[in-house]
What we know:
Number of strands: 30
Structural class: alpha/beta
Strand order of the largest sheet: 7-6-8-9-10-13-14-15
Radius of gyration: 57 Å
Helix content: 40-55%
Largest sheet: 8 strands, mixed
Strand content: 15-25%
Amino acid sequence: MKLLFHIIIYTIIIRALYANVEKQILNIGAIFFKDETDLEAAFDTAVQDINYLNQEYQLEFNPIKHYLSEDDSVILQEIACDLLQNSVAAIIGPSSATKSDIVNVLCNMTGIPHLQFDWHGEETDAVLSKYLYTINVAPSVHVLSQALMDIVQNEPLNWKTFTIAYETSSDLSRMQHLLAWKQFHKTGIKLIPFHRDDDYRVLWKVIKNSRERNVLIDCPSDIIVELMRESINFNMTTSFNSFFLTNLDTHTSGIDKLLSDIFLSNVTSVRLRSYIPPPVHSETDVFDPGEKDSVQTLNQQNIYDALVLLYNALQQTFQPDPIPVPEVSCEGGFWESGNDLIDKMKKLDQKHLEPHYKTQKLTVNSFGIRDDFNLEIYDVMVDDTLNVWNKQHGLVVYDNLISNFTRKVFKPKKKGDHVDYQKKKIKYTVATRIGEPYFMIREEPEGVHFEGNDRFKGYVVDLLFELAKNLHFDFVFEPVPDNKYGAYDPNTNEWDGIVRQLMDNQAQMGICDLTITQERRTVVDFTVPFMQLGVQILYSKPPPPKKELFQFLEPFSVAVWLCLLIALFLMSLVYVVLARFTPDEWKTQKDPNTVELTWTLRNSFYLHINSILQVGCDILPTAGPMRLFTTFWWIFALLMAQTYLAKMTSFITASKMDGTIQNLHDLVQQDKIQFGTVKGGSTSLFFSQSSETDYRLAWNKMKSFKPEALTKDNKEGVDRVKHSKGRYAYLLETPILQYYAKKNCDLMPIGDPFGEKFYGIAVPLNAPYRSELNVGILKLSEQGFLYKLKREWIFHNNTVLCEDAPSTDGTQMDMQTLRGVFLVLQLGIGVGIIIGIAEFFWYINKMAVREKISPKLALARDFKFFVNFWKQIKPLSIYKCPEAGSQSRGSLMPSTATETNSSEKHKRKVKRRKKPEKDAKV
């Protein structure tokens, strides 16, 4: 308490000492154009706030204002000289609307501080060194350029390519870092100038044709609303378009009134961060928004801060002594105190100043330029601060910055000021093309009508529905009018298909069997692949070989078979003739006086046939000539038999030996079968850009075929294979090939897949939602959903599928092929049976004549013996006529037997007697 009492007493004594000190009035000069009433108002507000302060050091600013009606250096010089004649301690202005630097020159000659509040000329050392008494509180153009570069490169924008629309070329000085930025894409950074009062529709048409979603606009704040309103007519205001307004007064333009359900673009801007005084707890009405600050624009804030800077520098430089009054004029004189005042302004500590600056962190460097300031990056449409930028700290997320404080300062908003259109669920337009089995039109049953996305079905339809469910977004399918994937036409310098829709901002996603290629990645981005594939040949199955009845005869021609039969008969006949000339082939029979020739025509024919069939024979020649003759016939028979077997084997495996294509190399090397692929698709791009010999040769042949071998889609190519009867092959991706091969039993894949490729979802360049789609696709892959889709739509689609035929060896023959052999067997058996039956009846007839009985009786007796299968010896008595009574039958048979035996014995005796006589004669 004692200490507090002493402080109070000391304060009262000090106030009493200065109570009678006169207040010093200091003249401050200001130069404005007549239409700069807002700047004049900011100047007056600053003077009032400074003069209102009740401090120990009594100082009052006396403003002396002059006005310009036009930019005239002569008038400006007269005004400046008049201000110097009135002993002003500083001159503020004029603005950059004047091109003359006469005020800078006069102040530099007289030592009077010159305060500037906007950008004037270049900030080079050579220029700034000429004006040592000039202080500019506007943010440094060079530092601001670095700030804009950091904002564009990082979040929340993170642009890789964009278009700069600017009103005047002088504005480009604030974007020198952006213009020097390296080009990430062929398009790079595009510059489009425009002028006030132009037809802004022309500007937006050019931007739309450039297919740019990110646009940086640098123009005065008073035309921003009119300029941005015209973008609505060009579909440039969707939630997937982004704008960056670099004017530091954008917050005063009223652009937030454009926010609606048709203006959902992300609009970001920057401004100098305002000074926020410490909160004061009071009983004021919390629902009263308070008085609105009249100092809003950048130049107004700079004028206010320049006067605050001057006032505090005067205090700290001359306190408690009076300020020397300048006595200078345009004719001569120099204010020595002006040098100290300039040094103090360059070194002034920005803490504990009264009144406070309107903006944060005002620091002037040795050249009199403000090179340190805090920039606020904010969402213009909802006035939400996103980041804060500073030269030392760079770009800092605002939420991270305020987390270091115990309390966040909220700006109360009136209820109903803004409708949160941007927080609605995002709805993407998805470009696609019709093609089985990825995207197809759903058939409507009778009495049922589908609408929206329910009209479609297919692999990508199910995939996108699952992604939308997991990532919480809406979408609508829009098939592209030309039903193309997206190819670049060098003649028109344009893209088509799905890629064109993405580039024109007509869609935010492109999905189908769209292959990721390097050429497409130069104009659009892709997610991680959702399917891996290759290229394979689709070809029609060869027709099964014709099943001829006597196909086993095909190894030899008809002439050969006829010559072989003729050779058999001739050789058999010659064999018999030669045997009759050969004594060793005559064999002695039962009668010792006779010899018999064994080789009849029948035996000879039997020997020669058995030689060809290689089954042997029970009779063989013994004479040397006959054996030599037989040997050469056996050689002939062996060669004929082996030749037949070899040719028969080749006919069995003819399906593998008829020159069918097995791979791409075989397809390229032949000229009978045409082949092609989708025109403008990734497969045609793969062949056209490949440096491998087979691929390049295949592409050249595809282009040379007449009629054209390239097709507009896969369905046309598949139909062409089906109807070409083996004269056309089609090259396409393996999943769609497997799909069509399952549906068409007369089609088959050929060779191994080649040219590894991937399907992915296409999005516009630098689309911020691509990372979310990547995560969603990876999760579906890990959960097995992608495999399930492939199995459902590619392998087991709800269509008539071809069952896989059982695997068979190429040498296996079926019954249809060998039926001729069995027919020959049946004919041979039948002919043999017929001949046997004929011989049987001939024998019956012969026995009936010899035994002098009826044929019918002879047949009956022989048939009776025939049915007794257990009897193997057949007596001749069955053909004898039985006598009456058993006795006569019994006496007849022994008598006959006796006579027969006697006759045989007599013949053997005669033979033995005649043999020595024969030997004696020999």
